[in-house]
Design a protein that fits this description.
The chain has 2 domains: 2-126, Quinone Oxidoreductase, Chain A, domain 1, CATH 3.90.180; 133-342, 3-Layer(aba) Sandwich (Rossmann fold), CATH 3.40.50.720. It has 9 helices and 17 strands. The chain has helices spanning 41-48, 54-58, 122-125, 129-141, 170-181, 195-200, 233-238, 258-271, 298-310; strands at 2-6, 15-19, 29-36, 73-81, 93-97, 105-109, 113-115, 161-165, 185-190, 205-208, 221-226, 240-248, 276-279, 323-324, 332-333, 338-339, 341-342. It has a 6-stranded parallel sheet. The chain has a 5-stranded antiparallel sheet with strand order 6-3-4-5-7. A two-stranded antiparallel sheet has the order 1-2. Strand 8, helix 5 (170-181) and strand 9 form a beta-alpha-beta unit. Helix 4 packs across helix 5 (170-181). The protein is globular. The protein binds NADP nicotinamide-adenine-dinucleotide phosphate. Residues 40-42, 130-131, 134, 165-166, 168-172, 189-191, 194, 209, 227-230, 249-251, 280-282 line the site of NADP nicotinamide-adenine-dinucleotide phosphate.
Amino acid sequence: MKSIVATTYGGPEVLRSVDAPPPVAAEGQVLVRVAASSVNPLDWHELRGRPYLVRISRGLRAPKPRGQAMGSDVAGVVESVGAGVSRFAVGDAVLGFGLGAWSELMVVGEAGLVRMPTGLPMTDAGGVGVAAITALQGLRRGGLVAPLTWGPGEVEPMRPRVLIIGAAGGVGTFAVQIAKLLGAHVTAVTSTRNLALVARLGADDVIDYTTTEVTEGLPRFDLILELAGNRRVRDLARILTPTGSLVASGAPRGQWIAPLTSMARLAIRSRFSRRTFASFLAKRRRRGLPGRPHRRGGRAQRERSRARQSHRHALRAPRTVGLRWDDPATVGRTGQHVVPGIS
Ligand SMILES: NC(=O)c1ccc[n+]([C@@H]2O[C@H](COP(=O)([O-])OP(=O)(O)OC[C@H]3O[C@@H](n4cnc5c(N)ncnc54)[C@H](OP(=O)(O)O)[C@@H]3O)[C@@H](O)[C@H]2O)c1
């Protein structure tokens, strides 16, 4: 099979198309015939080996394992399944992410895949995986875990105010849509050329970062999702409500250990504050995937009780709520990506 590999760290010039033996799905894995993939900042970091911290897990001199195809996002059709796989069968159309998507065939852990929604073109589905899961998990990390609900006779709860910095990017375009579907009031920060795009995705307010500095003004956001990685935490903290959350997913620029210093800074600040400051790495786990109900307990439960105590968001940790990819009625195409419906 054809496979795109990198024999050393570098730019696109180090990529080679090679003939490789087809992989075999081991226990718990699914072999997917790849129809479409895409390029994420994650792939850039893995190809360049930067920040150098990446090389601890990916190999000191060249990406390992040797001969492993590059690429993360995948959309394709199940070719075979390993022992113990129960959710997929041969011929199923799937999307998700794993390691080695720039190849004709790729193995993915069962937890890294979901079934394709009806009518979604493979080329669109191939751009969903990493960006969508990062948006979903980032918002959940900040306490936005379920649609607003209120009973008969109850006052409609305040809509949480969410700021998304980097709203026009891969992660941001999903984050805007998911936050809106969860009932938030969304302010999106982007450059001039993308203002119309984020407005179309549903943002209530749009801010052009080339003309307006978002960190000026009163504390007004319950949740800030920072995807651009170029603002100081103390500046963002100024516009966060007293019990709000700052969730940083965009890594600050730096060759060596930039993500670690940023994580440490956020963790320390969080420790001494009523507010939450967190950086996070998207996880490939079913709990975070669409269609998978949140279990009660764990982080969701903690978020809920914290939200209740602080009256911050009238949000509920759902018992059965999840994104539904399989309902055509709730799947809408957008300029860049696909928005899944929320049940
Ligand atoms: N932690 C994780 O697990 C995880 C997973 C995926 C991605 N990430 C990280 O999350 C970040 C975003 O990923 P992505 O895939 O969305 O990247 P992307 O598609 O390249 O989007 C980045 C966006 O940032 C915007 N931007 C640039 N400078 C900005 C500024 N000064 N203020 C506001 N926005 C600005 C750009 O908007 P304009 O085009 O309008 O200039 C661009 O659309 C990256 O740093 C990536 O490494 C982390």
